[in-house]
Amino acid sequence: MESMTGQLLVATPALKDPNFDRTVVLLVAHEPGGALGVVLNRATEVPVSEVLGNWGAMARDPAVLFEGGPVQPESAICLARTHPGVRRARGFHRVSGSIGTVDLSVDPESLQTSLACIRVFAGYSGWSAGQLEEEISSGSWFVFDALPGDAFVERPDDLWPMVLRRQGGILAAVAHFPPDVALN
C-alpha cells in the first residue's frame, strides 16, 4: 500500500474502540514500519498557553490542547499551517501541502511570520506495521483526502459529520448515524 501520510482516517460506525469513537485522525506519518497520526476532534479544556506559554498566542481557536490519541499522552505533537508562499520554516517538517509538524523547542516568536496557526496534541495514535491496513480492510476506517483547514476547524466536534457529508452519496448518510445504532 502506498503512503497515506497527510490523509484523514475517519472512524466508521463499526469501530468500537472508545479511544476512536467518531474520530477524525490526520496521518502525519505512514511508512512500512507503521503509522502515526493525531485525533483532530478531541479538544480538552486546557489552554495551550497554560502548558506551553508563548505558543498559546499562535494556537487556533479553540486555543486548547487536543487529545491526539492514547499513545504517550504526556508527549506533545504540534501541527502547523504555513502562510501562503512559505517554503521553509525553522523546525517545520512538512506533512502535506501547507500542513506540517513543528518542533516545540524552537522559539515561537521566530516563526510568527512563517506560520499561520498551530494546534497542539497531547499524545498520538499509532499503528504497528500492517495494523492500520488491517483495520482499514476490516471496515474500521474510511480514508479520505484532507483539506488544509481540517486540522484547524473552530468547531472540532463537528468535524466527523462534516468530513462524511462532503463525500456525498451514501457516505454523507453515515454522518447521521446515531452514536448507538441499537438504540435507534
From TrEMBL:
Belongs to the UPF0301 (AlgH) family. The lineage of its organism: Bacteria, Bacillati, Actinomycetota, Actinomycetes, Micromonosporales. This is UPF0301 protein Psuf_023140. One of its GO terms (cellular component) is cytosol. It comes from Phytohabitans suffuscus. It holds the Pfam family DUF179. It comes from the Bacteria. InterPro entries: AlgH-like (IPR003774).
